[in-house]
Amino acid sequence: MLIDDYNRTIDYVRISVTDRCNLRCRYCVDGDFPFISHTEVLSYEEIIRFVKICAPLGVKKVRLTGGEPLARKGLPYLLGELGRIDGITDISLTTNGVLLGAMVEELKQAGLKRVNISLDTLRRDRFAWITGVDAFNEVIESIKRATYGGLSPIKINIVIIKDFNDDEILDFVRIARKWDHEVRFIEFMPFGDSSLWNSSEIITSERIEEIIRGKFELVPSERSDRGPAKVYDIGGGSGRIGFISPVSTHICAECNRIRLTSSGMIRPCLFSDVEYDVKTLIRSCKSDEEIKEFVRGVVKVKPEKKLEMGMIRKCQRSLMNIGG
Ligand code: SAM
To answer: Which of 43, 56, 130, 192 has its CA 20 to 30 A from that of 33?
Structure first.
């Protein structure tokens, strides 16, 4: 088992399959962002080997992210192979949804059951401003196709940013009811365009919850998974609301994950720029046992918790590289 020095069991790996993305979200990417060369990106076979090494250590859950995971060719192949690994019981995907609609069937056949889709606004002009691309309609179409295609649950991730979309909080709650999906508000973290992020201007989950409770009843949900989200049913209707508060609170005690970046670095804590190079081991013919030992060592040094809100600094790398 992977147990760290603070007694947390790590059973979840988030894998960034590419640093490429078809959107340029301002809160994620900061200006120029040199891509990693293709040879530096882990191949699917290398990712599969890494997961095969982690599964006997107790890893059960894998999430594919990026960059935009669906922008990498052949993703259904990777999904299918990961799903065949003994011990892996849950594979999920985080996507911006632009390419999802056309791929729903193929992804389902490869074994995908559920999906998280990022959507920060319900207005087409705002979508184009924040992402740099006029693809709002494609994302809405993808959500419909994923719904009718039977992917479930569908979770919609929203980053609330002051003066950008903080007037849409209640609209998103209405959407959660209408579509019967889980809408999750994620606090704005210190990545991307630094002019947007200021720790004193973060709209905390507490504040968002207060705004929602002004209009809707929120009842703690029994359908909540183990993880950092606080999940509520919406009184008198369908749909759920989740709050993920990585900035204002220490959800670190519940942290059960490590990240594998597209360039093959293990990142034990999202908020710390410290990373450990597993790609070099994979590419230098080290044995599975040696790599297992390395992973155990990395988990041991997972930080206990991130800094306090006012002390958090902007992270050096964009979430696109790390895998959000
Ligand atoms: N391209 C995929 C997508 O858009 O879902 C996966 C990668 S994206 C980096 C993963 C998640 O990170 C998205 O839900 C995005 O909203 C979130 N994200 C990016 N930058 C963020 C920030 N500064 N604060 C909070 N969440 C952020």
So the answer is: 43
